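Lecture notes, unit on protein representations.

Consider one protein chain, 159 amino acids long.
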Amino acid sequence: MVRHRVQTGRYTAKMDDEFVVFLIGMRVNKLWKIHRWIGPFLAMPRMLRQLQRHPDKGLLGARMSLGGRTITVIQYWRSFDQLEAFAKNPNDPHLPAWKAFNKNVGSSGDVGVYHETYRIDAGQYESIYSNMPIMGLAAAGSSVAVGKRSETARARITK
């Protein structure tokens, strides 16, 4: 399915099992220190390309967002175990990038990084997409039309 085409009407996301939402980002605190932030800046797209080539690692989808000096990537994972395995595997690109960040930036304050991890039980989420392309959780799972039993946020989250 073409993900950029607008789906007219109201849709919601469907995920059959537990999943993980992982927010990860960086903030450029000192713009003029490009030698400090260019490495972390380029590392994330490399990691995402690697994960897209290997869907068995557990990444279901990702979306990058820019707000001021902060870049955030919202990732959807099949499980926390797969996210953790990717983060700790020396043969995957995360661990070498994390070690390089600690060596080159450390606690200098030039670049900030953060992440938040949320484990979501099946049925314990809610979404709505009105006249939008398939994106976010709907791209990670599936996009389904809103029906009479899923008209409200409360109805969608208590399925």
